[in-house]
Design a protein that fits this description.
Blueprint lengths: L1 H16 L1 H12 L3 E4 L3 E8 L4 E2 L5 E4 L7 E7 L5 E4 L3 E4 L8 E6 L11 E5 L9 E2 L2 E17 L2 E6 L1 E12 L8 E17 L8 E17 L2 E11 L13 E9 L4
Parallel strand pairs: 4-8
Antiparallel strand pairs: 1-5, 1-10, 2-3, 2-4, 2-9, 5-6, 6-9, 7-8, 11-12, 11-13, 11-17, 13-14, 14-15, 15-16, 16-17
Length: 263
């Protein structure tokens, strides 16, 4: 245990003592919805989040991709006027020291006090697949239906069809680096649902229509163009006079189908 703590303290100290690693660690920990651009973005500087003040800046900023194949940024707000901040390590480049009306934002391998990371920008250029595509992962929420559940009843497996409406939260991971192909792998650690089920206590009892609640479930899905299909597992519960339900707090497995709206 002492060795683990010593290694942890050493690692944290090393990262905090190295400015580039500090910026990279902060980007990994605090930037979940990270996007890429392969083309130059035209920006307007609007806010200094380090000082907490709004900025009135009439200059135009150009986010230059070269010499890297892409630039990573985080979207603060979507829409016609998207607001972003650019991840480390980028700095402002002024022509011959004069702060002109057009300023380039370029890659740098050293951290500067005038770092671009301290500012929020409004995107002025029109979006395209080349200027906005998922970098690696993002937080995602989506509705899912579970049309068939597999449950264990004694030594037998029971296949039951029911209407189950679920909402799932998780991490979306982009597959490949092509901005025109919307293929993702979704890891769903948390999902909740309301289900149309059959209530009975013993296997021989009459089955009565009832509502159950999925208080916890999880899953994995493959997504292409917004459509999701995957495998889920979870636990259901009924309340009140029906809490003696035969499947109360019992595990189930299911095929999940969903669609991610708002793409």
């Amino acid at each position: 245990m002492k060795r683990i703590l010593t290694l942890l303290i050493f690692t944290v100290s090393f990262v905090l003592g190295n400015s580039q690693l500090k910026f990279a660690a902060r980007a990994i920990l605090y930037n979940d919805n990270v996007y890429k651009t392969k083309d130059t973005l035209i920006l307007e500087r609007v806010y200094d989040h380090k000082k907490g003040i709004a900025i009135k800046d009439n200059r135009t900023y150009r986010l230059i991709v070269s010499p890297l194949p892409f630039v990573k940024y985080n979207i603060l707000e979507n829409g016609d006027n998207a607001y972003i901040y650019i991840l480390p390590n980028y700095s402002f480049k002024y022509e011959t020291g004069i702060r002109d009306s057009i300023v380039d934002i370029v890659f740098t391998d050293t951290a500067k006090s005038d770092t671009v990371y301290n500012y929020y920008f409004r995107v002025k250029s029109a979006p395209s697949p080349n200027t906005k595509y998922l970098s690696s992962q993002s937080i995602v929420g989506m509705p899912v239906t579970l049309p068939l559940k597999i449950r264990q009843l004694g030594s037998e497996l029971q296949f039951e069809s029911n209407l189950s409406l679920s909402y799932a939260f998780g991490y979306r991971i982009k597959l490949g680096n092509n901005p025109y192909r919307k293929k993702y792998f979704n890891i769903i650690p948390v999902a909740f649902a309301i289900n149309s089920d059959k209530y009975f206590v013993n296997k021989e009892d009459e089955k009565i229509d009832a509502i159950s609640f999925t208080y916890y479930s999880f899953g994995l899905t493959y997504e292409i163009n917004g459509f999701n299909i995957g495998l889920f597992g979870g636990w259901d519960k009924m309340f009140g006079a029906r809490k003696d339900w035969i499947y109360q707090d019992s595990f189930w497995g299911s095929l999940g189908i969903g669609y991610k709206f708002g793409e």
